[in-house]
Structure formats: structure tokens, C-alpha cells
């Protein structure tokens, strides 16, 4: 019974992906007539070649290869930036004693209640005033602060035994050496798990790249996909759009598949 429910769930989730994959292997006429083929066709290589080199849709948007590279750069920079800032802020809150330490932590924590959409207009104005429109800093910097990651690292650092701290002090280790030799090695699985989550977060960003990037050479794959779709079905080359959608799906799936073991250990492991 449990296996049957599991198989049914997988089929329901996988069916739209299968239909997208099948649609990417047929010509535009087959899909334009409203046919819904269930088996792959013979135009896959042609459709993927057009999507990769020329872009999808009737308007031939930015090539998928360029958009994938832009999305990859943005997602990696966001994930790495969030992890670096969160580790340093959590490390300061847990291991340093300074005035208003907890007030600083709660100030970070309260930002969880402010979604990006609430502060997007003032953030956009700041980026415009700084002249960072159509630049990588303008695209990435407003997204790299993470209260969630800071909270998770803080909770993990609190579980590090005090004996480790005392041993490091006896050994003459300063704060940076303790961070490099003790805290970071213990946090590797947590960092890996967070990297997967934050990479997908960065990869799926839509609203901010749509606002801040006007240069088509910097367009990301999520924004590009939305621009490929016209106002009517007759205006769309669904075969190349679906081929682009399949290409957009591959990097996140690859990251999850390659880091699956680290991802699970980072979420479940508690021993130091």
C-alpha cells in the first residue's frame, strides 16, 4: 500500500516533466495542432540546438547557453555569499562577547519577517543610485544576506562543546585559526546542505533579475523562459520553449544528485 502510494505520487510529480521532455522532441506543428504526444519524437537534437544557440520562441530570445551561464554565475555567487556572511555573523554572535550581542542577533532574525517583495522598491532605488543596474554586484549583493542561514549556523555552533574552545585557547589559537581549523571543518556537511538549498534559491530568482537586468547578455534562464512565451499559443514555438525548460532543469538536478549524500548528512547529522 505504501509503495503503491509512493509510486502514484512519483508518477503525478513526474508526468509534467515527462510531457515537457516529450514536447521538446517534436516539431512546432505537432504541438501547435493541439496534439499531446506521449512518446518522444525525432526533432530533439534540432530543437535543443536551436534553443542552445539561437534562443526559443518566435522572437528568438537570448540563447539558452548564455542564460544558463548567467544563472549559474548568479546562483553560485548568491549561495557562496550567503554562506560566507552567515558563518561570520553566526560565529560572532556565538563565540564573541560584545555589548548588544543578542540585540544584533534579534535584529538579524527579525529580517526574516521582511520578504524581498516588501523592501524591493527601496532596494531598487539604492541600486539605481549606486549605478549598479546591469551589473553582477547589483544583481547579487541585495540577495546575499540570509537571516535563515545565520540562524541555522548559530544553532549549530551552539552545539560545539566548550572543551573545543578551551583546548583551542590553551593551544594558542586565535579567533581566525579557531574558525579555520575547528569550526569550518565541523560545519562542512551543514555548509554542503545549505549550498544545495541556497543554489536552488538563487537559480529560481525571478523578480529581482527582471527588475535589475535590462541587458539581454545578462539575462537569466528563468526570466528568459517567461519572455519566450507570447500572448497566444499561435505565437509560441512550444518545442524550443520546452527544450529550454528542460535545459533549465538540468543544473539544479545535477547539483542535488551530486551532493545528495552531503545534503542528507547536513540535515540529519548531530555528532561532533
Overview of this protein structure:
This protein is mainly α and 272 residues long. 69% of the residues lie in helices and 0% in strands. The protein has helices at 2-23, 28-32, 44-53, 64-95, 101-110, 120-129, 136-140, 147-158, 162-170, 175-186, 188-203, 207-212, 221-228, 238-258, 260-268. Helix 1 crosses helix 14 and helix 13 runs antiparallel to helix 14 (238-258). It is globular and about 75 Å long.
List the helices and strands and how they pair.
Blueprint: H1 2-23, H2 28-32, H3 44-53, H4 64-95, H5 101-110, H6 120-129, H7 136-140, H8 147-158, H9 162-170, H10 175-186, H11 188-203, H12 207-212, H13 221-228, H14 238-258, H15 260-268
Helix pairs in contact: 1-14, 3-14, 4-8, 4-11, 11-15, 13-14
What is this structure, in a nutshell?
The chain is mainly alpha-helical. It is built from 15 helices and no strands.
Overall, the morphology is globular
Give the helix level as a range of percent: 55-70%
Residue fraction in strands: under 5%
Radius of gyration: 23 Å
Ranges with pLDDT <50 over ≥5 residues?
none
Derived from helix and strand composition plus strand pairing, the structural class reads mainly alpha
Overall strand count: 0
Total of helices: 15
**Series of secondary-structure elements, N-terminal to C-terminal:** HHHHHHHHHHHHHHH
Through-space gap between termini? 39 Å
The average pLDDT value, as a whole number, equals 85
Amino acid at each position: 500500500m505504501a509503495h503503491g502510494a509512493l509510486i502514484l505520487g512519483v508518477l503525478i510529480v513526474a508526468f509534467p516533466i515527462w510531457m515537457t521532455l516529450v514536447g521538446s522532441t517534436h516539431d512546432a506543428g505537432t504541438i501547435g495542432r493541439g496534439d499531446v504526444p506521449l512518446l518522444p519524437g525525432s526533432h530533439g537534437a534540432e530543437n535543443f540546438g536551436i534553443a542552445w544557440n539561437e534562443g526559443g520562441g518566435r522572437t528568438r530570445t537570448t540563447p539558452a547557453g548564455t542564460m544558463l551561464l548567467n544563472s549559474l554565475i548568479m546562483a553560485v555567487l548568491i549561495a557562496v555569499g550567503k554562506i560566507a556572511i552567515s558563518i561570520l555573523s553566526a560565529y560572532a554572535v556565538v563565540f564573541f562577547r560584545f555589548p548588544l550581542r543578542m540585540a544584533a542577533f534579534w535584529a538579524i532574525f527579525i529580517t526574516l519577517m521582511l520578504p524581498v517583495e516588501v523592501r524591493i522598491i527601496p532596494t531598487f532605488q539604492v541600486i539605481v543610485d549606486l549605478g549598479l543596474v546591469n551589473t553582477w554586484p547589483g544583481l547579487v549583493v541585495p540577495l546575499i544576506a540570509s537571516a535563515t542561514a545565520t540562524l541555522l549556523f548559530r544553532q549549530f555552533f551552539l552545539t560545539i562543546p566548550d572543551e573545543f574552545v578551551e583546548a583551542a585557547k590553551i593551544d594558542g589559537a586565535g579567533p581566525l585559526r579557531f574558525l579555520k581549523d575547528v569550526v569550518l571543518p565541523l560545519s562542512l556537511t551543514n555548509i554542503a546542505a545549505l549550498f544545495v538549498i541556497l543554489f536552488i534559491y538563487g537559480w529560481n530568482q525571478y523578480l529581482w533579475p527582471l527588475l535589475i537586468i535590462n541587458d539581454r547578455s545578462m539575462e537569466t534562464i528563468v526570466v528568459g523562459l517567461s519572455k519566450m512565451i507570447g500572448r497566444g499559443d499561435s505565437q509560441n514555438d512550444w518545442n524550443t520553449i520546452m527544450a529550454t525548460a528542460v535545459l533549465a532543469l538540468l543544473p539544479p538536478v545535477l547539483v542535488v544528485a551530486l551532493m545528495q549524500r552531503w545534503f542528507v548528512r547536513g540535515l540529519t547529522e548531530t555528532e561532533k
